[in-house]
């Protein structure tokens, strides 16, 4: 109870949510506000069933103020669209039942353009492909009902090309050192693609947790 009350007290005067531990109720210049924190806060509060401790409408208003002309979202109002930030904002809006603020066709098109000839996805134009974007991009498309807009088999081949055949781990791109971060998002991406259905459990595109766990907890998210 104490923890959830403190989480709720973190909201800043602009209604953006800062990094936990930043105290900016009175002085916003002393804290770091970022739409990633908006997602983390509502995701934790949803799992704790304590979304009532923040002003959800105002938190949504802040995330929507970070939406750009291309349908994407940035760190703060006016910041460049970025796939990781888009995942956070789309996820935050899904948790708060506010996906009517998203333009799925416009944003879906921008996200599909993240797929490169190798099949891998990047986070922004002119960047290299990276397995973790198999999650950030794919999960956002899944929430918006547009996952079929990318070439699934090419992406699956890219993810598998990043796997170390000796250790089984997955790297950011072929030939690089594997790590737990990219292994998680590679495997979660394969689950979203529907690959290896007998071996991989269905993953929830908002929480990156097994669907069966969220069902057991009674936590639901909006999907388009
Ligand atoms: Zn990465």
TrEMBL record:
<dbReference type="InterPro" id="IPR001330">
    <property type="entry name" value="Prenyltrans"/>
</dbReference>
<comment type="similarity">
    <text>Belongs to the protein prenyltransferase subunit beta family.</text>
</comment>
<dbReference type="InterPro" id="IPR045089">
    <property type="entry name" value="PGGT1B-like"/>
</dbReference>
<keyword id="KW-0862">Zinc</keyword>
<dbReference type="Pfam" id="PF00432">
    <property type="entry name" value="Prenyltrans"/>
</dbReference>
<dbReference type="GO" id="GO:0005968">
    <property type="term" value="C:Rab-protein geranylgeranyltransferase complex"/>
</dbReference>
<dbReference type="GO" id="GO:0004663">
    <property type="term" value="F:Rab geranylgeranyltransferase activity"/>
</dbReference>
<keyword id="KW-0637">Prenyltransferase</keyword>
<dbReference type="GO" id="GO:0046872">
    <property type="term" value="F:metal ion binding"/>
</dbReference>
<keyword id="KW-0677">Repeat</keyword>
<dbReference type="InterPro" id="IPR026873">
    <property type="entry name" value="Ptb1"/>
</dbReference>
<comment type="function">
    <text>Catalyzes the transfer of a geranylgeranyl moiety from geranylgeranyl diphosphate to both cysteines of proteins with the C-terminal sequence -XXCC, -XCXC and -CCXX.</text>
</comment>
<feature type="domain" description="Prenyltransferase alpha-alpha toroid">
    <location>
        <begin position="28"/>
        <end position="209"/>
    </location>
</feature>
<keyword id="KW-0808">Transferase</keyword>
<dbReference type="InterPro" id="IPR008930">
    <property type="entry name" value="Terpenoid_cyclase/PrenylTrfase"/>
</dbReference>
<protein>
    <recommendedName>
        <fullName>Geranylgeranyl transferase type-2 subunit beta</fullName>
        <ecNumber>2.5.1.60</ecNumber>
    </recommendedName>
</protein>
<keyword id="KW-0479">Metal-binding</keyword>
């Amino acid at each position: 109870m104490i923890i959830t009350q403190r989480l709720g007290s973190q909201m800043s005067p602009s209604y953006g949510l800062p990094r936990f531990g930043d105290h900016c109720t009175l002085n916003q210049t002393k804290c770091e506000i970022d739409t990633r924190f908006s997602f983390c806060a509502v995701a934790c509060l949803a799992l704790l069933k304590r979304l009532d401790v923040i002003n959800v409408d105002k938190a949504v208003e802040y995330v929507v103020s970070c939406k750009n002309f291309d349908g994407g979202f940035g760190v703060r109002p006016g910041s460049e669209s970025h796939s990781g930030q888009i995942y956070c904002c789309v996820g935050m809006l899904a948790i708060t039942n506010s996906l009517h603020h998203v333009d799925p066709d416009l944003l879906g098109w921008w996200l599909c353009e993240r797929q490169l000839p190798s099949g891998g996805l990047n986070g922004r134009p002119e960047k290299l492909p990276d397995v973790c974007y198999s999650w950030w991009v794919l999960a956002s498309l899944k929430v918006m009902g547009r996952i079929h807009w990318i070439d699934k088999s090419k992406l699956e081949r890219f993810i598998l090309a990043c796997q170390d055949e000796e250790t089984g781990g997955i790297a950011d791109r072929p030939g690089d050192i594997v790590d737990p971060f990219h292994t998680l998002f590679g495997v979660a991406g394969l689950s979203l693609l529907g690959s290896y259905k007998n071996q991989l459990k269905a993953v929830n595109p908002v929480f990156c947790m097994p669907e069966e766990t969220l069902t057991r907890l009674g936590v639901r998210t909006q999907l388009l």
